[in-house]
Write a structure and sequence with these properties.
This protein is mainly β and 496 residues long. The chain contains no helices and 32 strands. It has strands at 18-29, 32-40, 50-56, 63-64, 75-84, 100-108, 115-122, 130-131, 146-153, 158-165, 170-176, 183-188, 198-208, 211-223, 236-244, 249-251, 265-266, 274-278, 290-294, 309-310, 317-324, 327-334, 346-359, 370-377, 383-391, 394-401, 406-410, 426-430, 438-445, 448-453, 458-463, 472-491. Strand 30 and strand 31 form a beta hairpin. It is globular, with a radius of gyration of 22 Å. Bound molecules: beta-D-fructofuranose. One of its GO terms (molecular function) is sucrose alpha-glucosidase activity.
Length: 496
């Protein structure tokens, strides 16, 4: 049956069939969340790039639509964004029926080379799209110039485009009154952050410590293919905190805690969270900044052992800034809407474990689509952790190392790992104890694990491919005694 195949995510968006990569054109309009995505309508590997499309009323249940913007003879349709042009500045619609406008990269079909920025618009709530006859709207004669994210900048009352000069490790800013005519504003670069080519930038202001009146800007950039790549290797995201004045982004060094990796902070410490972008036009009374990322990594993206689709998006997450280590960190938390999928809660309190591994089956905690909240006090133990999706000779291990103060997700024995040499591995995040405790929020699906620690200051997102009957959950303690103060678990219903 569709959506029941081995490894088919049950609460993450996947296309029914064929290849998907980056989320594109995330936009809210008239009660619907739209998600477009890089899509190959003709096969399960990258190619014929077009914008696929899905719609949700609740960020949880998605309905796949027909391809929104197909490739044509001249161009493939690469990544980009979408906005609701409320004032009809583009003239594509009317004041009463403002157009939805997609701004994407046109990638010249072989044997030509070159990337430029183009528009398409919809007057029927995103159901049908028309490519603008005046395309391209921005062409600098460059080969690597892509992934425009466009925002309405309230203070200067104009459109701002953030776009990557991928192989120059630069972000360019442009402004426009009407989405058609663009003026260059500035470049942003960051010595020490050239760890992979730059792709899929995003720019937004976030509240600080929950205070809507105190905000700073975040510039997010994704690192693609490169020697070193992101923190866990290969594809991943980084970000800078600072100010944006309508012309340029100025990083705020005081707001960014010292980091070993360079002047930036990491978005996610796992290997499968790439090209994340945030929704435009979420209603002001809601006020959340929400994003999703592509749960894959270009190192092995085309080899994932799934059929007839390949790749999934992450769960939607909200973003905020929180004070940490004398600076500000971007924290990610799963959207509350996901709680509607919860089945009957199972829980336990004050379980002390000494040099042992305990199955949580005794408390009826198991499953392959499962949400868990776990708080533990390491006490005198050296290592405290959880084994997830355990079964015959396999497990995905979440390990907290007390002296190192690190949280690691180890997928070396997680099931199928040998389809690519860069897939198996251990992905480590720094995580100081919080009042002597560790607090984890974990989402387990048929082929992924997403971990949010300490209210989302650390996220680790990884694909896994265990056997379908590997449903166990265990807790373990090494080198002493630790107490699991509280464990809550909910089986999650399928969205399909
Ligand atoms: C990122 C990316 C983008 C590009 C798209 C092509 O994963 O390489 O830079 O627009 O994928 O599919």
């Amino acid at each position: 049956a569709p959506y029941q195949e081995t490894f088919r995510p049950q609460f993450h968006f996947t296309p029914k069939e064929n290849w998907m990569n980056d989320p594109n054109g995330l936009v809210y309009h008239n009660g619907e969340y739209h998600m477009f995505y890089q899509y190959n309508p003709y096969g399960d590997k990258w190619g014929h790039m077009s914008w696929g499309h899905a719609i949700s009323k609740d960020l949880v249940h998605w309905e796949e639509q027909k391809v929104a913007i197909p490739e044509d003879e001249e161009y493939m349709i690469f990544s980009g964004s979408a906005v609701v042009d409320h004032h009809n500045t583009s003239g594509f619609g009317t004041k009463d029926n403002p157009p939805m406008v997609a701004i994407y990269t046109g990638h010249k079909q072989e044997p030509e080379k070159g990337q430029d920025q183009q528009l398409a618009y919809s007057l029927d709530n995103g159901r049908t799209w028309t490519k603008y006859a005046g395309n391209p709207v921005l062409d600098e004669g460059m080969e690597n110039f892509r992934d425009p994210k466009v925002i309405w900048h309230e203070e200067s009352e104009q459109w701002i485009m953030v776009v990557a000069l991928s192989t120059d490790y630069k972000i360019a800013f442009y402004s426009s009154p009407n989405l058609k005519d663009w003026t260059f504003l500035s470049h942003f670069e960051s010595p020490g952050s050239e760890l992979g080519i730059w792709e899929c930038p995003d720019l937004f202001a976030l509240p600080i410590d929950g205070d809507e009146d105190k905000r700073k800007w975040v510039l997010e950039v994704d690192l693609g293919a490169g020697e070193e790549g992101s923190v866990a290797g290969g594809s991943g995201g980084l970000y800078f905190v600072g100010e944006f004045d309508g012309k340029q982004f100025i990083p705020d060094e005081d707001a960014m805690p010292e980091s070993e990796s360079g002047p930036h902070q990491w978005v996610d410490y796992g290997k499968d969270f790439y090209a994340a972008v945030s929704w435009s036009d979420v209603p002001e009374e809601d006020g959340r900044r929400i994003w999703v990322g592509w749960m894959n990594n270009w190192q092995y993206a085309q080899e994932l052992p799934t059929s007839p689709w390949r790749s999934s998006q992450s769960i939607p997450r909200t973003l905020e800034l929180a004070s940490h280590d004398g600076g500000l960190k971007m924290v990610q938390e799963p959207v509350d809407e996901l709680q509607t999928l919860r089945g009957e809660q199972k829980s336990l309190s004050n379980l002390t474990v000494t040099n042992d591994t305990r199955s949580l089956a005794d408390w009826n905690i198991q499953g392959k689509a499962l949400e868990m909240k776990v708080t533990f006090t390491p006490g005198n133990a050296e290592v405290v952790g959880l084994n997830l999706r355990t079964g015959n000779d396999e497990k995905t291990v979440l390990r907290y190392d007390v002296s190192e103060e690190t949280l690691a997700l180890d997928r070396t024995q997680s099931g199928q790992v040998d389809f690519h040499a860069d897939f198996p591995g251990v992905h480590v995040a720094p995580l100081p104890l919080d009042n002597g405790q560790v607090e984890l929020h974990v989402f387990i699906d048929w082929s992924s694990v997403e971990v949010f620690a300490h209210d989302g200051v650390v996220a680790i997102s990884d694909k896994i491919f265990p056997q379908p009957d590997s449903e166990g959950v265990e807790v373990f303690v090494e080198g002493g005694s630790a107490t699991f103060d509280r464990i809550e678990a909910w089986p999650l219903k399928s969205i399909w």
